[in-house]
Amino acid sequence: MWYNLGKFILKNRILLLVLLLAATGFMAYKASKISISYEFSKAIPTDNQKYIDYKEFRSKFGADGSIIVAGLQTDKFYDLQQFNQYKKLLAEIKKIRGVTNVLAVPSAITLVKNDSTEKLVPQPLFPDSIRTQADLDSAKNRFENLIFYHQLLYNPSSKAYLAAITVDTAIFSSKERSKVVATLMSTVNNYEKTSGQQMKLSGLPLIRTLIADSIKNEMYYFLAGSLGLAIITLLLFFRSVSSTVISMTVVVIGVVWSVGTMVLLGYKISLLTALIPPLIIVIGIPNCIYFLNKYHMAWKDRIGDNTSLSPAEKQVAKNDALAMMVGKMGIVTLFCNIAAAIGFAVFALTRSDLLKEFGAVAGINIMMLFFISLIFIPVMLSFLPPPKERHTKYLRNRFLENVLVKIEHWVLRKKGLVLGFTTVVVLVAIIGITKLKSVGYMVDDLPKQDKIYTDLKWFEKNFGGVLPLEIVVDTKKKNGVTSNLETIGKIDEFSNYIAQSPYCARPLSLVEGLKFLKQAYYDQDSTQYVVPNEFDMAFMSGYLKTKSRSNASTTSTNDNSLTKVISSFMDSTKQRARISVNIADVGTEILPVLLDSFKTKSAEIFGKDTSKYKVMYTGGSVTYLEGSSFIIQGLKDSIKWAFLLIAFCMLILFRSLRILFCSLIPNLIPLVVTAGLMGWAGVPLKPSTVLVFSIALGIAIDITIRFLVNYKQELPLHNGDVTATTTSTIRSTGISIIYTSLVLVAGFVIFMFSKFGGTMALGWLTSFTLLIATLTNLIFLPVMLIGLMGKKKG
User: Fold this and answer.
1) H or E element: which one contains 588?
2) What pLDDT shows up at residue 683?
3) Is residue 330 within 8 Å of 374, Cβ to Cβ?
4) How far is CA 25 from the centre of its chain?
5) Is the pLDDT of residue 38 over 70?
6) CA–CA distance from 11 to each of 162, 372, 387, 501 (Å)?
7) Residues 27 and 257: beta-carbon distance below 8 Å
8) Helix-strand-coil percent breakdown of the chain, rounded to 5?
9) In angstroms, rounded to a whole number, what is the distance separating the alpha carbons of residues 588 and 731?
């Protein structure tokens, strides 16, 4: 069947090539429309309660995590020249498209009591024009007397100052966000040059944008690096420019198809899908090597040492070798690609959209690689002259032949040593597995010296953190927040508890606004920055409706801002109150403990009866924790599914339970050894590192399939002699297996140059796993075959 398919491809080569190139042109057009995304909430299933809570929160209060923070630490902040330069910076930032508001020391307001109108009138603490140092010092004293701004806009002990830049969430959900961030950073850089001060920038919108842009840039670097390494490797192996060009064209077509598939399915480039194009290169090159290797072997078998063939005879021999290439390698490559595709496609069975997208695109395009290789390679080779002696010289590599002789010696003479050594390694690995931990941080993939990381840590040190945690207190009735001072008191008590945590910034809620108003009512007496009681409310009721003077436009703006801030901490029905907390990047190990402590305290304050109060925890930090858990669990489940499905495919292919057993054990050992290495080396389980196991399983099984298919094909030639067949298989497939493994390792090594620790770990862990898989398939697998299949039985 496959031999006839080879003849069919050669007979219809023009038509098939035109159809392939036309389809590739269409996919290239689609690929040009690709965009990037960094929505971590997509990691959570839409029916998950945490996802539902997050969506409900956004519908009631709007998007969280919409603030970029700019920090400054200096003893000269209130120097007149420095202060005016800082004011000018903030004014320039506010003009940037995508920035909706800037809250900082120069824009801080106070409330002035007007007894004649019984109104609290907002006024700026720092006038637009401050001409003398004395005026600035006076404004500074008034500002620092307002407790509301302590630890919010400045840290008195460390002389650190913060500007909260609110951004348009619609723009930051589009590709325009990169331009906004670039403009912001350019504006800050100009300020740093003129003022001599160093600014810190952080916040979820900024972190996500910079990481997403880095992912996009790294994808291009990895593509170039993978292609470059593949070209060098192929040239060294085949010593043929044409073979290298054909192979590279196959993988480039595969990359175009993979990106085009993302667009056709409505997906964007994410942290995971960005890995697919380089993976297509890494997985596609072995297809080409095996096809070309079989073609060269078939060609040598046809002509032997005969150098006097006529051009017509060479053409016949070449076409026969190409048909034989498809006949011998078609079924093998099909099952290898099926196994690799399963290793990725099982991610689509998880409940995480991020993993589903990755699995669907990778699985589809690994299978498409098979069809691209099956058509393009024989068709292009048919147009080229037969291979020359230098092109097939690699088939007689003396160094590798000596290595294979050593392997044969170990398999035949050192079976006990091989089994004993493998057992010891596996036992040591199992001990290492017990040391594995599952922990992740929002920015733990970044180098510790990266500015994103260092700036985030600066804000955690001086202001507690910048990652959003939102707590919603539902009073279960309309106006329940404002109609009862008991509720206000409970929110204040809970906020004070949260503020004591070393991992949290000062919480903000409606209560802080009421304290601000009370201090203003009592003529800015700082001792009055407390929750109003019923006596206070009786006198303050007329003043609580702030209203500005009609002839002061700037005051009106401040009034509107104040009203917006206060109203943003209640929903429209005043049934639900919001407590906003910025927390440190504490990781998936500490965050659950932190949340549990908050839940215990809230149950103590608000009561366990949810019919009166219900407290909900959501926000970017909670969705990140839930998303990480789902991805890790999804990856673990996918490995089990991949193993079962691959085992089923192997059973269909070989129709032997003993061969099935022989095929699976050599591929389980590398996974166990890698997991053990991670435990001993302290590499935690997180989405990027768990991904290693499915990738390695899907790729490493290729080696097993190619070895065992060759074994089955050669068994009749050796009259069923298992030992002779096994040693012959080592010699006939060993060189191509070693070549392919080197290409795969080189392809994954390129990921080690990533700036992201997870991607870097993916590179070296996968390379290590594939090296171990090569050894187990070339040494341990033959030992198992000889031991389990008998001497004269297959």
Assistant:
1) helix 587-606
2) 84
3) yes
4) 29
5) no
6) 72, 17, 21, 75
7) yes
8) 70, 10, 25
9) 49
Query: Average pLDDT, whole number, for the chain?
Result: 84
d(CA 411, CA 404): 10
Residue 465: CA atoms inside 13 Å, Cβ hemisphere, count?
25
In angstroms, the CA 508 to CA 167 distance is: 19
Closest CA to 760 of 445, 546, 483: 445
Angle between helices 353-383 and 276-303 (to 10 degrees): 30
Q: What is the dihedral of CA 381, 382, 385, 391, to 10 degrees?
A: 30
User: Could you give the angle at the alpha carbon of 494 between the alpha carbons of 490 and 496, nearest 5°?
Assistant: 115
Sequence-ordered strand ranges (E) for 342-411: none
- The 10s digit of each residue's pLDDT in 372-412 is 999 999 999 999 888 877 777 777 777 888 888 898 889 88
Collapsing DSSP to helix, strand or coil, 683 comes out as coil
Within a 10 A sphere around the Cβ of 544, how many other Cβ atoms?
A: 17
Assess whether the region 1-33+217-396 and the region 397-434+656-794 belong to the same CATH fold: yes
Distance from C-alpha of 594 to C-alpha of 586, rounded to nearest angstrom: 9
- Other Cβ atoms less than 10 A from the Cβ of 141: the count is 11
- Residue-wise pLDDT tens digits, 558-602: 444 455 556 678 888 889 999 999 999 888 888 889 999 999 999
Task: Please state the pTM of the whole predicted model.
Answer: 0.77
CA distances for 321 relative to 145, 318, 709, 731, 788, angstroms: 89, 5, 19, 21, 35
Residue range 397-434+656-794, CATH number:
1.20.1640.10
User: Is residue 299 within 8 Å of 321, Cβ to Cβ?
Assistant: yes
Closest to 579 in 3D by CA, of 549, 601, 560, 557: 601
| 68 strand-pairing partners | 165
Task: Choose among 305, 304, 301: nearest CA to 293.
Answer: 301
Mean pLDDT of 146-162: 93
Q: Where are the domains of the chain?
A: 1-33+217-396, 397-434+656-794
Using only C-alpha atoms, the chain has a radius of gyration, in whole angstroms, of 33
Please tell us whether the domain made up of 1-33+217-396 is placed in CATH 1.10.240.10: no
As a whole number of angstroms, the distance between CA 255 and CA 259 comes to: 6
Q: What are the tokens at 70?
A: 């700019």
What residues does 438 pair with on adjacent strands? 685
Angle, helices 620-654 vs 587-606, to 10°: value is: 130
- Residue 787 tokens read as 């031991």
Q: Answer for the pair 722, 794: CB distance below 8 angstroms, yes or no.
A: yes
